[in-house]
Amino acid sequence: MAVVGIVPAAGSGERLGASGPKAFAMCGGRSLLDWSLEVLEAVCDRVVVAVPAGFEAEDRVLGGASRSQSVKLALAATPEATIAVVHDAARPLITRELVQECIDALEGWDGVVAAAPVPDTIKQADPSGRVVRTLDRSALWAIQTPQVFRAEVLRRALDVDDAVLAAATDDASLVEAAGGSVRVVEAAAENIKVTRPVDLALAEALLRARC
């Protein structure tokens, strides 16, 4: 069994206001990517990162135009993978314990996603802004990464048109659309994704609190 980490890290970082690719933005004295790699390399047999053009190196492959296309390209570079651990480079608060828990939970399933229970009241509205209904938040989860899959299942799910890959907000949705079974593993809400400058400041504060 080969456990391979897949890190889509080809994003531009435009919303973050970074001067370069988002994965290489500094957070707590290290790049966002380095925080994730430290954990993944401790758990996985190999880690492959999908990067922007000009950043290719050993185990760093050229990413695609979309997040899921980057995952597809990185997975194609790891034919030995039997389990794929997909993690966003922009989530620096990942822990070894969470990755291992997701891997352990894969038995009997096609995929496992880290997720936090939704604490807010969620309402569905129509295009005019009129509330249509209030959803039962007890059944709602905010999906994070890592997302762990049987590699052959993920390969099949990613074998779709680029337009479908571009529309996917996560890889689990592609596995679900292909008929795969996916379960959630509860994770801390602090496992945030850094998208805006305020997220970066929060991530730095949370990382400092760990020390």
Question: How would you sum up this structure in a few lines?
Answer:
With 211 residues, this protein is an alpha/beta fold.
N- and C-termini, Cα separation? 34 Å
What is the overall shape? globular
What is the makeup of the main sheet? 7 strands, mixed
The overall pLDDT average reads 94
Assembly form of the protein: single chain
Helix content: 25-40%
Annotation field: number of helices: 7
Q: Uncertain segments of ≥5 residues (pLDDT<50)?
A: none
Provide the structure class.
alpha/beta
List how many beta strands DSSP finds.
Answer: 11
The ordered string of helix (H) and strand (E) elements is: EEEHEEHEHEEEEHHHEH
Could you explain how this protein is built, in words?
This protein has helices at residues 32-43, 67-76, 96-104, 151-158, 162-167, 171-177, 197-210; strands at residues 3-8, 26-27, 30-31, 46-51, 60-62, 83-86, 111-117, 123-125, 131-134, 141-150, 182-186. It has 211 residues and is an alpha/beta fold. The strands form three sheets. A seven-stranded mixed beta sheet has the order 5-4-1-6-10-7-11, with helices on both faces. A two-stranded antiparallel sheet has the order 2-3. The protein has a two-stranded antiparallel ribbon with strand order 8-9. Helix 4 crosses helix 6 (171-177). 40% of the residues are buried.
